[in-house]
Amino acid sequence: MKKLILLSLTTACAALGVHAQGTVTLANTTTTLVTCFPPFGGPPPGVPVPVGAAKVALYGGYLGASEGQLVQLGPPTLTRPYPGRYSGGIRTNPFVFAGAMATFQVRAWSAAFETYEEAIAWGHPSVVFVGKGNLFNSSTGGAGIPPSIPVNLAAVTPQLNVYGYCIPEPSIMALALLGVASALLFRHRT
Prior knowledge:
Layout (H helix, E strand, L loop, with lengths): L1 H17 L2 E7 L6 E4 L9 E2 L5 E9 L8 E2 L4 E2 L8 E11 L3 E10 L5 H7 L7 E3 L3 E4 L11 E2 L7 E4 L6 H20 L1
């Protein structure tokens, strides 16, 4: 009887493991910062997006999915704790089994908008910025009993450039204003 119960429990756990979904951790590194490339004027190209200025979301699908087939996995996260950095926690890809390969894409947009699609619909680069990384494939976690840890995407996430008007960090703006005020002060003294 004990062997039958143990066999039943093992079979049930294995069946649940087969239906598990792949997990990943949404994050980037200092070599894959979210950077701003304005179409005209603004900060020089390649400036990291200021803290809290952008929302970042992970889109995912089955291995080989096209960009149009990807769906947003979980809520967006803000760029933080440093300019151009993000860390969005664990995300589940419901399109693949745990431990399987999947296709992903990271997208970013102005924090004033709730979704990437809303920011695209607004569409004017003097008001909003949007960007998306290249599609990439990665394995997922969650396989086995106990489930394996989620795969950290920080090592495989491609560079993400957003296009549009990015407001510089407040500290940069303060320094610029201080420089202008100093120049005006010295101009009046001469």
